[in-house]
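Marked as duplicate of an earlier ticket. Keeping the data here for the record.
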Amino acid sequence: METNYLVIMALLIGCLATTIPVFMALFFTGMVGLVWIAGIDPQIVIEVLYRSMDKFALIVVLFFVLCGNIMTTGSIVSKLIKTANCMVGFLPGGLAMAGILACGFFGAISGSTVATVVAIGGFMIPALLENNYDEKFSVGVMTTAPILGVIIPPSIAMILYAMVTNDPLEALFLTGFVPGFLIMFFMSLYAYFFCKRRDTITMPKPSLQEVFATLRESFWALMLPVLIFGGIYSGYFTANEAAVVACFYAFIVEIFIHRDLKLREIKGVVISSAITSSTLLVIVAGASVFGEYLTFEQIPGQIANAVVENIQTPWVFLLSVNILLLIIGMFMDIISATLILTPIFLPLLSRFGIDTMHFGLLMTLNLGIGYCTPPLGVSLYISGAVADRDLIYVSKAVLPFLLIQIAILMLLTFWPDLVLFLPHWVYPPS
């Protein structure tokens, strides 16, 4: 039996190494395991494939994708950046801080790191360079700050994690606020001292009238995250319904208030969102087939028993998992990794007494860092294309910011109350 497991793992790694699309690699490997090794009827595998996409949580993901595309096509993104710049642009490193804050604002709406690095990084990297900021610093900060897209709720990765664990999505979202604030604060602090030491030119401090004018101009854009979180935690609508509300609100604002989204552009926005959503869905489908094989062979339970025999304390377990997830994040996208690994780790959490919501945040943060690590970090390639720099240059540029994020990861790992404070306060454990 162990030989069969090795064959399956070798097949999966081989498929990924030959640049076969991830969803095809997962589906083909799962198919081989279920049909040729486990002897399952192929028709059942096809049923698993279709059943994996028949989940309400996936609708939420699709609507947040659409919402992000509406904002990037319209002017909500530029207004969020303008507001952030007005708040901190006059400080040393203020423009970089504005980019970090803008990633936080946009992440609180889009739920995606890729969308954040495209929308904010694509605008801010040229802006930083035009204002004589150090190039390596500019590329590094705007490549790594978009991790806020999957940390600050709503988060597509957290939605999928909750789909597997059955954790309440509203409570799981709350785990991201404190970590998101810590990342914004310490990255901004680094930007402040880095730019102050180099006497980077700052913008003039805005007058009170200019501040009010900017806030008035950006009012409808700033109200979007207020609407989402206010609606969720006041009980007017669920976290699932929030995605639809956000889409509808962004559409109305861009069409009728800002008037920066033209009716003729709507078709393109919908098509682009459909393509992105389809990519996510096929990954979910492929991962589900592979996950079905793991479940059928009871591999998660066997791994759990092996781990428990060799690791005695939850802290050693969490440290080991962090290292493993950081490595996996270098090679696998967050969607696939979340869907495949969550069922494997889930039995271990109860054995070590680890809160599933705490672990969900750690997994999301670990895999989010993977967007900025070679060889397959998507953010590296996007920022490299914007700055016209190669992978090695961008990988060196992100290093100091990755160290900051890993330090915060370690803090959150061994101080779970920092993660669970908000969800336990809003939703007291029974």
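See parent ticket for discussion. The mean pLDDT is 82.
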